[in-house]
Design brief:
Subcellular location: Cytoplasm
Shape: globular
Subunit structure: Homodimer.
Number of helices: 14
Function: Catalyzes the first step in hexosamine metabolism, converting fructose-6P into glucosamine-6P using glutamine as a nitrogen source.
Organism: Aeromicrobium panaciterrae
Strand content: 15-25%
Largest sheet: 5 strands, parallel
Keywords: Aminotransferase, Cytoplasm, Glutamine amidotransferase, Repeat, Transferase
Bound molecules: 6-O-phosphono-alpha-D-glucopyranose
Length: 371
């Protein structure tokens, strides 16, 4: 009913709108004012965490893209090698696991069969399994050694939105906690990054408040048969997620690429008028911003219609952006939490223009309980 949807036409719109709260709820009660993390509920002792020498993050669908984002943060803060794997591929490649491997699974529903089978396999190999999950008491947390709940509230729409953002935040809390326990050289980043994470709900709210320009763009582009998404570093999984949302909701060809790979193939796809979203990393010492700006120049020179997501104050992108979506200034690792929001809004409005059922796209299920 309309009441259940909180006045929105679709659950998905309601869930997009709830994201500032969802992220705040993932953080709630998990850190003290002095910037120390407390994750006592998760049932893994500090000694067990200190033994971990490899982390493998496993998930499906949108949760897999959260895992891809998480890898950057996990390796950076914990200094523990981290792999990311699709649940449906994991146990078929004879993976190397033992009791010092921490397998982290990410699942909104807690009922995805591919992920459950990966957990069973990992535990047979004596790895420890920690699940990041949104559904209390579901199968995945019950079958895991430890659990960190995302607390995003029930997600009804098939396409995941607040689930995704809260999963990234939960992974970051885990990574920072392990860094705190291990005392890595990045330990002193914990308090400052936590302070930045606390500001995220406001940044996400701003992206919601500025949603009209994205909806207008979706109306203009609703005739497109193909849309590309480019990003680098944590912006790469954001590009993949932006493309997945369009596939799921609009049933058009949409593909995400690592911007640096453009020249190795995808640039051949660019033709006159092709819409291409580009997520531009914040300016930093790593030159990723500059390299992404030159990718934008290259595709635009070949006729692409560029839709650029760039932080406030980034003026380098202005000459090459047919449409410019501004993002609040945040540390690179946090950018997915603000940059994903306009892509969600875009996909919803695009599908709405085509008259599709936003909450229940054809052929898809909210949780896939078969392998
Ligand atoms: C299905 C849903 C996706 C979801 C994926 C993983 O394919 O349609 O939206 O991302 O399952 O679900 P999970 O509940 O494990 O996160």
């Amino acid at each position: 009913s309309a009441a259940e949807k909180g006045g929105f036409d679709w659950f998905m719109l309601k869930e997009i709108d709830e994201q500032p709260r969802a992220v705040a709820d993932t953080l709630l009660g998990r850190h003290s004012v002095d910037g120390r993390l407390q994750l006592d509920e998760m049932r893994l002792s500090d000694d067990e965490l200190r033994e971990v020498d490899k982390i493998i993050v496993i998930a499906c669908g949108t949760s897999f893209y959260a895992a891809m984002v998480a890898k950057y943060a996990i390796e950076h803060w914990t200094r523990i090698p981290c792999e990311v794997e699709l649940a449906s591929e994991f146990r078929y490649r004879d993976p190397i696991l033992d009791k010092s491997t921490l397998v982290v699974t990410i699942s909104q529903s807690g009922e995805t069969m591919d992920t459950i089978m990966a957990i069973r396999y990992a535990r047979q190999q004596r790895a420890r399994v920690l699940s990041i999950c949104n559904t209390n008491g579901s199968t995945i947390p019950r079958e895991s050694d430890a659990v960190l709940y995302t607390h995003a509230g029930p997600e009804i729409a098939v396409a995941s939105t607040k689930g995704f953002l809260s999963q990234i935040v939960a992974c970051y809390l885990l990574a920072l906690y392990v860094a705190q326990v291990k005392g890595t050289k990045y330990g002193d980043e914990i308090a400052s990054i936590l302070a930045e994470i606390q500001k995220l709900p406001a940044g996400i709210q701003r992206m919601l408040d500025e949603g009209d320009q994205v909806r207008k763009l979706a109306t203009e582009l609703a005739g497109s048969r193909s849309i590309l998404f480019l990003g680098r570093h944590v912006g790469y999984p954001v590009a993949l997620e932006g493309a997945l949302k369009l596939k799921e909701l609009a049933y058009i060809h949409a593909e995400g690429f690592a911007a640096g790979e453009l020249k190795h193939g995808p640039i051949a796809l660019v033709e006159e008028g092709l819409p291409v979203f580009v997520v531009v990393p914040p300016k930093g010492r790593d030159q990723l911003q500059e390299k992404t700006v030159s990718s934008i120049q290259e595709i635009r020179a070949r006729g692409a219609r560029t839709i650029v997501l760039a932080e406030d104050g980034d003026e380098d992108v202005v000459p090459y952006a047919d449409h410019l979506i501004r993002l609040p200034k945040v540390p690179t690792l946090l950018q997915p939490l603000v940059a994903t929001v306009p892509l969600q809004i875009f996909a919803c409005e695009f599908a709405n223009q085509l008259g599709h059922d936003i909450d229940q796209p054809r052929n898809l299920a909210k949780s896939v309980t078969v392998e």
